Fold each of these.
Amino acid sequence: MSASKRPYLAERVPLARNERQSSGELYERFLSWSRETSPRKLNKWHHYFDIYERHLSRFRGTECQMLEFGVLDGGSLVMWSEYLGPKARIIGVDIEPNTQRYNGIRPNVSVLIGDQSDQAVLDRIAAHGPFDIAIDDGGHTARQQINTFNGIYGSVDNQGVYTCEDTHTSYWKKFQDAGPGITMVEHAKRLIDEMHVIYTERPKKSFAVPMSEREGEMLTTRFAASTFSIQFYDSMIVFEKRPRSEPWSQFR
């Protein structure tokens, strides 16, 4: 392709109008959801379901524990209970006291009441961990999203997943309550740098030395040592946890 015909990535083009935006069993369950089949309202963005399937399907049928901030009408708690299976434990958290009535809506569902921007509340919730899955679908302000991540991430299992939903609110002034330039998206961008800080502290050649011949320890933050990936999607950020090892580059 010639340079003159190469697509200009910053060119403004229309988005496709596809009402069907995901696939898989969970999405089909969402599409068939109605007040006739369930008395509980369920509100999710259509493009989220492919992301859910990618990151959460491995937990189906296991004795996993899910934590979700944002109960609303209890619909998502029912959905997760049905999707993950009866062995899973689903814990919902909401600031509204009336959502307590959804405690026990399914045998494996419980509801806790508390303000996710309150550190004491987060400490109390973290005590119920470790969580295999944590989803922040709560109040969506910068302060709530950042505080919830900082307060709960350490209680996510070392092979678990943390998801912050509706991060498009990082671009809406109504939700920017943490100070100029402080949003969940910007917070996650800084955490990308934190994942890679070890490479700024040592020369390149040090990573080619076999483990048995290395002197001293490669130190990094607890976050960086436990985070395998940070994945940005439209309106969602997913953190996958996995214990990391010292980087090793080798010619073979």
Amino acid sequence: MSSDVIFQPLRLGSLTLKNRVLRSSLAGRFDNYDGSGTPVRINWDVKFARGGVGAIISSNAPVHRRGRLVPGFALIDRDDRIPFFRELGKRVHEYDCKYIVQLNHAGRHRDIGDLEFPKGLSSTDRPEPIHGFECERMTRPQIEETVDAFAQGARRAREAGLDGVEVAGGNGVLVTQFLSSAINDRDDEYGGSLENRARFALQVVRAIRVQVGRDFYVGFKISVDECMNEVFPWLRRGNTPADSVQICKWLEEAGVDAIHITAGAAFPHPRNPPGTMPLRDLVRTYDTIAASGRYTFRNYVAFRTWPFSSIFRWQWERPVRRVGAEGINLPESRAVKEAVSIPVLCGGGFQTASVVANAITSGACDGVTIARSLLANPNLVELWAQGYDRPPRPCTYVNKCLANFLEHPLACYEESRFDSHDEMMREALRVYETAEGR
């Protein structure tokens, strides 16, 4: 199949991209603890812009200090953050690449504990089920404050000269915690029925539109199939594709320009990022998480002790064994695209040009978002343009990048993809070099 369709422009509301490939939210802990941005972050994003993607969706940018997923990511919670994002956008724009800020609030979902706020905020007061980070149920004033925080974050992105925002509404963060039937246990107007659970998300979108107007891109990322029981069998499944399709219809009515498809009401999740579970690497770095969280010792034992480790790995890798990693979310993407009139972006392990082209031409999506495969090959789009269907050294989906990012620079740590260990280390540390990370 011709890959020409990949290089056709993509219209997302008022925004036009040069091709159909976006780098998904992807970054390590490259910023300062206080949420201020660094030149390393700029080096990081410029590297992917140089590689040919049509747009970059930023790493999660918390709209409030209490919404940090993990320290070391640039916040967009105050006006004095604007100059950093302005410079970042300026550098990315030099490569004819658009920059979209992913507005996020982690809620109860954290990778490590927060020094300033030991408890997260959520739609519930039940601990997060993977690591057991504690939280408190949000009051109405806290909900109103958070809705405004999203709106002000979007205003700051526009004032910084960036090209749009994406509301993080999937993979277990705060918006997911309101949307999800597996998480939200409220008995007020924000809980119970699907319409009530969607109220918070729709308020966020409408508040953003008030701040940025109609001529600024606003996307929404959603876990269409939450599949929480794939993480641990005793958990409730959560929202089904039918539930999420209805939510997407409401989001379109509220003013969203595009829907970004992902899966799983937690992160990591067997469907995001799909692939194997590198337990040996995870055990080496899990001590960062094990310092806090109600269930972390249970996990640590399960990761390193046979037969629990084998059972955990078997359970985790079931979805990939059934359907494969590349394009794992295409059925859900197609269901949403058939129900809405706005563009649909799909994530899920893409790195083969013919697979991407077929996904677009068959009507499953309008464009794709890529994370790990670009981490493995930042010039993936250039390779496709040169005629490669798949890069010579493709991503192996072993997820060692995920297992290492809390303690080490985010990079590919699958040594079989490199000529030597030294070469792998040089690539991992290159982002700290001057001259745009070269």
Amino acid sequence: MGAALSSSIIHWGKVGEVISGIFLSILLSGIAGFLIQRAFRGAIGGNAQDPRRVRLHGPWIAGLMMTWLTWFMLLKGLKAVPAVGTVKDYTIGTYGAFPFLIGLWMFYFFVFIVILMSTKDRGSRYLFHGMSILGMLCMAFAFGQNDLANCASPGLSTIWLWRHADEAVSVASKIPIPHWTLFSCGILIVLGMRTRNAQRVTRAEVNTGSQFDHVALWAPNWCRALARLFLKEAPTGPALVPPPSTTETGKHIHYDTLRASVVMAVSASVIAFASGRGLPVSTTYVAFAAVVATGWGDRVFHRGDADLKVGRAIWVVIGWFLAALIAVVAGIVVAMVILKLGLLGVGIALAANLIVRTYFKKRADTHELRYHVSQEHSGDTLPEVAVQGETD
């Protein structure tokens, strides 16, 4: 957007559509995550592996999850695939959306009844384990759809326009992107997700919505003060999540399987729906909204380091707006430098990018080390939690 502003070629209608899509996707993920988690938690209770409750409520809950995943992932997210379009014509096109969804839910309902009856306690114990894994796979697919477009399209489109400058004006809205280039960019995304910075972001997101009372997080003092004011006015009640626990190897279990299933399914559905409508939403924002919303649904912010968790959420949301503003300004500056100086400007922009990235990476690493060292010597947060936060 910043580069487009510098050239006065921005399409404000499309910008408004994308921005509204981002805000609506966050809002939808948050509202859906809260309401669904509260309803499912009320049915299942604090133990998502209790055989009696899972046999009673598991089929309709898992059936609902499968129904909306089928609807959003296949019929909305993959509506451009010919085979999916054919199925949609023979089902929704013939019977209507509502009867089709009711019928699909009843089908899944009876399937899960048969599964639980045939597997007995073992199936009840691992039903939501399986649903969370399935939701994770759907979420990965949805992320691939949207994140790949977000990160790869600008660069690949720029290269194509550079090579076809003479015909760019007439076909700029329909640029052919070879599949092998998207595959290559997908590999780079996977490699990037394995870096320490990516793991740090994931760890912070998980800890923000953790069911543990004390977590290894950082938030500015003014954000924590705002959080305390908010929590003072918020309705209170006992936490609905199971007691904090760890695995046999000492890893913290930040979410139980029911909440993990809801987070995965809601995030995947919202992102797939946005992808089907051609909206490049932020998958990270959507997932974070689902994590925080399901946390509110389970009342994990009513005890322990509640002000720290909510303060971190406030800081993250503010960071979204700051990042967008910085990106626009930086895009304008870089575009003007390249426009005025040509290849020299490209070299200057690359050098500036490297310097800025190196500087802020060192600052982030120093802050991370200093913070966790201070946590180890502080009585506010349990030392083992701070250390465990590095490996969870």
Amino acid sequence: MKNKILLIISSILVVMLTASIIKGRKVDLENRQSEKDTSPGGPYESTNSTSRYALTEVISEQNSFFLNDQLARFSAPDIVKYHNRYFSIFTPGISFISVPFYQLGKIFGYPQILTYLSTTFFALINVFLIAKLARILGSSNLASYISGFVFLFATNALAYSNTLTQHHAGTALIVGSLILGLGKSNFINKFILGVLVGFGLLVDVPNVLFSIPILLYVFISDIKFNEVSPINRIGKLLVQYLGLSVGFLIFLAVFGWYNFQLTGSYFKVPQFIGRVSEREFSTDIILPGSQKEAEPEEDGGFSFPYEPRDLPRGLSVLLLSSERGWFYYSPVLVLGVLGLILFSKKENNSKKTNVLLSTVLIIIVSYSMFGDPWGGWSFGPRYLIPATAIVCSLTGLVIDRYYKKLWFTILFFCLFIVSNYISSIGALTSNAIPPKHEAESPLIGLPYTYRLGQNMLTRNQSSSLVYNLKLNSYISAWQFQWVFMLISTLSLGLLYYGLFSKEKINVKK
């Protein structure tokens, strides 16, 4: 009972903390969000969000997928111009999800806030999905929730929980697929797995690639040669895989229909056509949030986004660099790596280790070969957020093993506080940090690390709607960050304290 109370209190604090980082300014509420201010620190600072928001708006307001000149300029350069019509370069999954949130927000007069809350909703769901995966991997109940807590508050996942991007929805789909893949083999699980993989395609095309290790694990696990009745077994599996195929094909058909509406072809994907030329909307303002690409031809063919020779550079950028390094922005992840090592040493865990490691590696390697491993103007390695979730799910194993050791407790909280400090900077200021090669140009002259956000806090600038609306007259932005960190650490401490209790929560895995 004691642990359940601690878990409830911690969950309430998590929701409060997540609500406190919703982006917005006082003027945004006064004008009922009729203005679309793309300056840094606001909800529209990145075209990764604005292009999806523009699509949400035209679906809701005009029942269309095409953007007018005003919305195209607002979304550029993350748009495609094809046959003289503009549309978002991104797959429509996030915009489809956010339409009901937009409609609800329109009723209250704040469509942007409610629309972006769709991502916050997935961010909170991910805490529980990671906790579920951690329990499947062997963590205790409270340690599993600590794993989810670490993901949301000690990695750059926090900074993207208040945007309209694909990262949290994609993470939910991949972690959900892992949970199903590691679970029982039956028709319902297979069908839902197919749905998750199919909807992952709508959210972001690479999600299908990241699901391959999970699907292979499921297939290999289903092959058993010691069955008494192999014919009966094969029949059951055929029915199950029919369910998986149907679940996937439903969303593949939706994706093909969407592509046809835009391009006249079921197979021509906007992301492979290429972004609009930068000359299309000439401006002296640097548009953050997206990479520069060459102008596509009107009827250009397939453009493969990966280049193997870029792998060494990409690995350096995504794992170790001060620009976007995984361990630079989230040093607490070293515990997740240790958790993977501990998990791999347990008997009968070799197949599960392979699927976890393969999924993480395929995400890292694929984006390391991507032409823009920096993720444009972004905070930390945003592309690796799904891999971060998997690694965080293994943190609970380390906590269960060492939490009674004083040295580990000190180490764990030091790693968490440093990681939480960094992640809260992005969440409370701006995600638009330029890559080093752009930041050092005379025209920009901005920091290329989270120091950009530190400078904003020093100047008393915050993106938090709660701070800008209610608290800026009482405390500085820097003080608000430390209050945020204090409550985050307190919430984590409650869960950690519960580990020392002999009471256990009976939760079905």
